[in-house]
Amino acid sequence: MFLAPSMKWKVILDFSNDILRQRAVERNIEIMGEAINRILKANSTFQLSNARAIVNTRNRVIHGYDSVTPEFLWSLVIKHIPALKSEIEQLLKDKEKYDV
After folding, report:
1. Which of 1, 58, 80 is nearest to 11 (CA)?
2. CB under 8 Å to 98, separation ≥6 — which residues?
3. End-to-end CA distance of the chain
4. For the CA atoms of 8, 12, 13, 17, what is the dihedral angle to 10 degrees?
5. Is 48's pLDDT higher than 50?
6. Is 61 exposed, middle or buried (0-12, 13-18, 19+ CB in 10 A)?
7. What's the rounded mean pLDDT across residues 77-89?
8. pLDDT > 50? residue 3
């Protein structure tokens, strides 16, 4: 996602002031982390980049909620979730390889 520097700050500020969006992002991180954790337990051959980091992030959101800032959530939305989405889309194309 490309945004001009001034627009990035506006978007970040909008997100920082929108508690509903922050909670939605937190909830989705919880769900993604839990789903990946269950997949890893069910199928030890399942390969996903940063799978452990995703589960750890889920744990941080749930148990270390006092350390979760809007900036942290925003960095996940902008930097990490798009890469995860691309990888999962590829996995879905190749899903016959995995029995999950």
Report:
1. 1
2. 43, 45, 46, 91
3. 31
4. 160
5. yes
6. buried
7. 87
8. no
Tokens matching residue 56: 């750890």
Q: Which two tokens stand for residue 94?
A: 């190749």
Residue 93 contacts residue 69 (beta carbons within 8 Å): no
> What letter represents residue 59's amino acid?
N
Instruction: Give the residue-averaged pLDDT of 7-31.
Output: 86
Report whether 61 contacts 30 (CB < 8 A).
Answer: yes
- Amino acid occupying residue 81: I
User: The tokens of 91 are what?
Assistant: 């996995």
Kindly tell me the sign of the dihedral angle through the C-alpha atoms of 75, 80, 86, 88: negative
Residues in the chain: 100
Instruction: Name the DSSP class of 17.
Output: T
